[in-house]
Amino acid sequence: MSLRNEIELARQQAREEITSCADDKDIESARVKFLGRKGVIASLMKQIPSLPPDEKREIGLLLNALKEEIASHFAERSSQLEKEAAQARQAAEQIDITLPGRKPLHGKKHIITQTLEEIIDILAYHGFTVEYGPELETDYYNFGALNFPQDHPARDMQDTFYITDTLLLRTHTSPTQIHTMEKRQPPIRVCMPGKCFRNEAINARSYILFHQIEGLYVDEGVTFGDLKSTLYAFLSSYFGREVSLRFRPSYFPFTEPSAEVDVSCFLCSGKGCSVCKNSGWLELLGAGMVHPNVFKAVGYDPEKYTGFAWGMGIERLIMQKYGIDDIRLFFENDLRFLEQF
Ligand code: DAH
User: Which of 60-69, 93-102, 181-190 is modeled with the greatest confidence?
Assistant: First the structure.
């Protein structure tokens, strides 16, 4: 093959290979192959000295021109690759403003807080204001003033966390009745929400921590009928439908008479279903007429005033309403549970 043909072939080869370079690495190895010290052009140059004198100059010029041509191919391909890479980067980074946005994660109130607020709202509508009492109580407020006799077995009804001999974690919200009556005179219409603590074995039905809300109404001439109508109105609002109530005689030291109050099942209206375990009734709360000894303890005249009180567990109220079967769910902070409310 004549040297001219070889030069022509090298030109075509270089053009093809440079065009097909896909990255800097390809470019570099092609550059070595064509323009390197032992490359294609160099080896063609080496043949010049052995040419006839009249061709030396011409072939030299041709090879120099080819060298420049190849160099400019490289430059072109390099800048083309750079442009392509920049475009790819831009495409990858591009923001699609037509995509739906990501919702920020909002926290919300715990179902217990939601329910307490709902209950307080309903009771406010019936004229009840809110009082809060301490979680750390003395024996006197938690028991004594509430007519639990010293060493009376009634104190065993509630497994108490004692802090000292006389300081304890309140086992119910009833002591807030005493605080309220000590600082105010009748008429009194208050509700008293809060945490309560009992040293109980933890299982699906009981937990060492729970919430209660207590209601208290004291005035001249308050009757058991007032208790019934208040609970009826309150529970119908809470369950969102008319309910029937059932009062079962019971015992609490701070009320006389005392009752446990059942409400007709909000789901089946008393026909029987899984929520009420086919009984048609849900056991909801304790209630009664304030015991005269409680009035005496706070300095009210039991001959002048009468009153009713009731207390109920918030977790139980929520469990009944939503068909929840394990009280521990309220305290485990599993978002899959909490997010449902
Ligand atoms: N304190 C009682 C308990 O925790 C509940 C209760 C019963 C409260 C009757 C009352 C009441 O105010 O009148 O078991």
Answer: 181-190
Q: Does residue 156 register a pLDDT over 80?
A: no
Taking only Cα atoms into account, the Rg of the chain, rounded to an integer number of angstroms, comes to 45
Rounded to 5 degrees, what are φ and ψ at 55? -90, -20
Name all residues whose Cβ lies below 6 A of ligand 1.
Answer: 172, 174, 214, 252, 255, 286-288, 309-311
Instruction: Using the mean position of ligand 1's atoms as its centre, give its distance from the Cα of residue 12 in Å.
Output: 100
- pTM for this prediction: 0.70
For position 158, what pLDDT does the model report?
64
Task: Copy the structure tokens of residue 326.
Answer: 């394990």
Q: What is the pLDDT of residues 45-90, one digit of tens each?
A: 888 888 888 888 888 888 898 899 888 998 999 999 999 988 888 8
pLDDT tens digits for range 279-323: 888 888 999 999 999 999 999 999 999 999 999 999 988 988 888
Task: Report the separation in Å between the CA atom of 172 and the middle of ligand 1, taken as the mean of its atom positions.
Answer: 7
Mutate to test the pocket of ligand 1, among 141, 146, 254, 283 (most ligand atoms within 8 A of CB): 254
Beta-ladder partners of 281: 264
Alpha-carbon span 19 to 248, nearest angstrom: 95
**Top mutation candidate among 157, 171, 214, 226 for ligand 1, by most atoms within 8 Å of CB:** 214
- Any idea where the domains of the chain sit in the sequence? 3-93, 111-338
* Separation CA 28–CA 26 (nearest Å): 5
CA distances (Å), origin 93, targets 87, 90, 313: 10, 5, 55
* CA–centroid distance, residue 174 to ligand 1 (Å): 6
Superfamily classification of domain 111-338: Bira Bifunctional Protein; Domain 2 (3.30.930.10)
Please give the distance, rounded to the nearest whole angstrom, from the Cα atom of residue 312 to the centre of ligand 1. Answer: 7
If you write DSSP's letter for every residue of 2-38 in order, what string do you get? -HHHHHHHHHHHHHHHHHT--SHHHHHHHHHHHHSTT
